[in-house]
Amino acid sequence: MADLLDLFGRALDACARAGLALACALLAAMALLINVEVLGRYFFNFSTLIADEYTGYFFTWLTMASLLWGLRRGDFLAVDAAVRRLGPRARDACACLAALVGLCVALVLLDATWELLAVSLKFGSRSIQPSQTPLWIPQLALPAGFALLALAYLHEILARARAALTGTAAEKAGGQAGGRAPAPP
After folding, report:
1. What is the pLDDT of residues 26-38, one digit of tens each?
2. Which domain holds residue 9?
3. Is the pTM of this model over 0.90?
4. Residue 134 gets which letter from DSSP?
5. Tens of pLDDT along 9-19?
6. Is residue 40 assigned to a domain?
7. Cβ proximity of 56 and 128 under 8 Å
């Protein structure tokens, strides 16, 4: 099981690196689109008509694409003043419990956003903006991001449970609080 768990962790790390690369590309695209819009309006009296809409879509996509990276690096906010005073096994048990809560929240959000996506596809919903973008395209980021987040929390639970049961150091277990970060792209 340890080998399978490590393989699962490496696959999540690869997805996190890909998500980070996508987020960086989208941030650059947002900056370019905003600058084209500003310069076009200021100097040439024209508008792209899509800048506001698409920067919102890009921001949603980059946020969802970078959630996995943030969790795997341990960059999510945590209140751990009391937990830091516990022994290693108790800390791992608390981290496992916290990851279970995170998994439940991610699954609820996955379900809700999956339903939103399904409704948009069923009715062929489109943006009210001039681009008439099919809404399933920007909405696809939501269930995809929450699914990856749920998988990362599942890995965290399994790694922390193994660490708590075997007495293995948390850093060796991998996962969020273990401080292991995938290498940047």
Report:
1. 999 999 999 999 9
2. 2-74+85-173
3. no
4. B
5. 999 999 999 99
6. yes
7. no
